[in-house]
Design goal:
Helices cover about 25% and strands about 35% of the residues. The chain is built from three helices and five strands; from the N terminus they run βααββββα.
Length: about 140
């Protein structure tokens, strides 16, 4: 079951030509992950960051069409794989029905020493319910 995060393109995200400056898409992806943690896992980053962290360790993106100031994007987040402490994610950004970018990333839950730490049973259960390919 995919999670969708709505993002209206703002002036601060655009270059002088009025198009999204591509690094801002990475910020949007992180905003999507943060919203997923808060709204689906009920584990907001404000809580995660007390002794843990969820850094991105790998990311790959393809940009298909520019987004412009005022566009409304729906960023669809999917769970591709759940590891012991990692999570492989997919992203698809759409403006109406036009694809703007696709991406994949891996995030890892770490402890306060920066070492991978396993997902709790509760969090893993919720992740499994939202994983792609689940009926």
């Amino acid at each position: 079951m995919a999670f969708t995060f709505h993002q209206k393109i703002k002036f601060r995200q655009c270059d002088p030509a009025g198009m999204v400056f591509y690094p801002r898409y990475f910020e949007m992806m992180n905003d999507t992950v943060e919203a997923f943690f808060e709204n689906v896992l009920h584990y907001p980053f404000a809580q995660v960051m007390h002794g843990n962290g969820v850094p991105t360790v790998q990311i790959e993106a393809q940009f298909s069409a520019p987004s412009r100031l005022g566009d409304d994007l729906d960023i669809v987040l999917g769970i591709k794989r759940i590891g012991t402490s990692s999570l492989d994610l997919s992203y698809q950004a759409l403006c109406e029905k036009e694809q703007r970018f696709t991406a994949t990333s891996t995030v890892v839950l770490i402890d306060d020493q920066g070492r991978p730490t396993p997902w709790t049973k509760k969090i893993r259960g919720i992740l499994e319910q939202h994983a792609e390919g689940r009926n």
